[in-house]
Amino acid sequence: MQQSKNQLYELVKDIKTKKEFEKEIQKRYLHYDSLFDEDTVALMYIDELGKNNQSITNIADIKAGSEYAIIGTVKNIYEPRTFTRKNGSAGKVVNIDIQDSTGNCRLVLWDNDVDQITDKNIKKGTTLKCINGYTKDGYSGLEINLGRWGMLEVLSNENIEYQDNTTDEIKGILVQKDETKPFFKDTGEFGFVTTIVIQNNTEKKQITLWDEKVKEVQKYNIGDQLVLQNITVKQRNGKTELHANGACILHKS
Fold first, then answer.
1. pTM score
2. Fold annotation for 162-252
3. Domain spanning 59-156, CATH architecture
4. In this predicted model, what pLDDT tens digit does every residue of 88-118 receive, in sequence order?
5. Which of 7, 3, 54, 45 is nearest to 25 (CA)?
6. Burial of 251 (0-12, 13-18, 19+ CB in 10 A)
7. Would you say 166 and 244 are in contact if contact means Cβ atoms under 8 Å apart?
8. DSSP label at 253?
9. Which of 58-76 are b and which e, b meaning 16 or more Cβ less than 10 Å from the residue's Cβ?
10. Which helix (H) or strand (E) element contains residue 129?
11. How far apart are alpha carbons 75 and 105 in whole angstroms?
12. Pairing of strands 162-177, 225-236
């Protein structure tokens, strides 16, 4: 699981007093309009201070009970399973075997993340980058879980073809707004991503929002009528993805 604010303070206690640390966390918490909890803001501050040591780790070096970023190639994908939690809610899970040049482990995706198998055309031979994955001992040995703060990137995949275009405008009612996820960019900086669903009559469109657009959408509520302009349209193996980045204009209609 993600480390708590107090655990993260241990990484900077040699250069910051607890009072200084707490003051900076509160300042950044307000800056992001309470978009993230204090634990996430603390992680971002630790990274800013150069004290975040999360880089790509060899699979052979990962241990249970910590967080890692790893890169591995898919060797096997098991059938997704559904289950019922103790509170009666439904859940989904899928296991994936991945390996790098040093070893192998199991990657576990839960609930909405299970859909990434289809959405990102993940299959045997796909190279994945798992960011902010937390590890534990599972039934089949060490496993890395893509949880609340995790993100999965496809680095390479055979026969994947992209074609980017833009669409002038998308209008509709905001019917779904997922939780924001922070992630590390290749530059080492933090990025933010979330997904929303816009409905126009009976048609629903899922749109992935990046960075500043993530912050902008927080001021809108479910049921608001929105207009998104300059949406990037990615065609991948016949499937359409909609992305809102810096070029997108987002407002109420």
1. 0.54
2. OB fold (Dihydrolipoamide Acetyltransferase, E2P) (2.40.50)
3. Beta Barrel (2.40)
4. 889 999 999 999 989 999 999 998 889 889 8
5. 45
6. exposed
7. no
8. -
9. ebeebeeeebbbbbbbbee
10. strand 127-138
11. 10
12. antiparallel
Tokens of 150: 């995790």
Q: Which residue has the tokens 């991948």?
A: 236
Would 59-156 and 162-252 be classified into the same CATH topology? yes
Going from N- to C-terminal start, the domains of the chain cover 5-48, 59-156, 162-252
How far CA 192 is from CA of 94, 118, 167, 186, in Å, comes to 25, 22, 22, 13
Task: Show the tokens assigned to 212.
Answer: 């500043």
Specify burial of residue 19 (Cβ count, 10 A radius: 0-12, 13-18, 19+).
exposed
Q: pLDDT band at 28, cuts 50/70/90?
A: confident
Q: Which amino acid is at 136?
A: K
Tokens of 32: 């992001």
Q: Which residue is it, tokens 């990102």?
A: 120
Residue at 68: amino acid letter = Y
